[in-house]
Amino acid sequence: MKLLVMSDSHGNKATVKSLVDRYADQVAAVIHLGDGASDAQLAALDHPGLPFHIVCGNCDFTRDLPRYEDAVFGGKRLYLTHGYSEHVKYELLTLTLTAHEHGADAALFGHTHETLIDFDRGMLLFNPGSLGYYGSYGILDVDDKGIVPHIYVL
């Protein structure tokens, strides 16, 4: 299954809508990792049959969204977070250990605006970068055999 992953859209609603419209028939779910959560919530209204997983970023002024989410896709557990609580601008060990505590196979995060595909202690660390500033986003191919990450730029 394919997942559309984005973060840090920072009010760029048109870009989020366009990206979701483009992939809606190709993905099983959309993941927004914060800082522009309302952009994803608005796009979700146009796609009521498509699951959206949205976590709150440090620039999202809502208490209606979780700070993190544990989600299972294709038999793999993903830890979804914006990353500010895990201090990802300074180090990734806290994120890695937290994701391990949650039994995750991968940790997805934003906040830094920089794309990243890396592994630490057997944990896939994936940051799609900033959709709002750099036009970057990710696609994850997930099945019971593994997770294959891809990063694209508009």
Record the SSE blueprint.
Blueprint: E1 2-6, H1 13-23, E2 29-32, H2 37-45, E3 52-54, E4 68-73, E5 76-81, H3 93-101, E6 106-108, E7 115-120, E8 123-128, H4 131-134, E9 136-143, E10 146-153
Parallel strand pairs: 1-2, 2-3, 5-6, 6-8
Antiparallel strand pairs: 1-9, 4-5, 7-8, 9-10
Helix pairs in contact: 1-2
Give a quick precis of the structure.
With 154 residues, the chain is α/β, with parallel strands linked by helices. 21% of the residues lie in helices and 36% in strands.
Give structural notes.
This protein has 154 residues and is of the alpha/beta class. The chain has a single domain, classed as Purple Acid Phosphatase, chain A, domain 2 (4-Layer Sandwich). The chain is built from 4 helices and 10 strands, in the order βαβαβββαβββαββ. The strands form 2 sheets. Strands 3-2-1-9-10 form a 5-stranded mixed sheet. A 5-stranded mixed sheet has the order 4-5-6-8-7, with helices on one face. 42% of the residues are buried. The model has no long low-confidence stretch (mean pLDDT 97).
What is the top-level CATH class?
Answer: Alpha Beta
User: Overall pLDDT, averaged?
Assistant: 97
Task: Give the strand order, joined by hyphens, for the main sheet.
Answer: 3-2-1-9-10
For the record, the CATH architecture stands as: 4-Layer Sandwich
Low-pLDDT runs of 5+ residues are none
- Can you count the helices? 4
CATH topology: Purple Acid Phosphatase, chain A, domain 2
* Helix-strand category: alpha/beta
| Total DSSP E strands | 10
- Radius of gyration based on Cα positions: 14 Å
User: Biggest sheet, in brief?
Assistant: 5 strands, mixed
The CATH H-level superfamily is: Metallo-dependent phosphatases
Distance between the termini: 22 Å
Shape call: globular
Which percent range describes the beta-strand content?
A: 35-45%
Estimate percent helicity: 10-25%
Oligomer: single chain
Count of folded domains: 1
Sequence of secondary-structure elements: EHEHEEEHEEEHEE
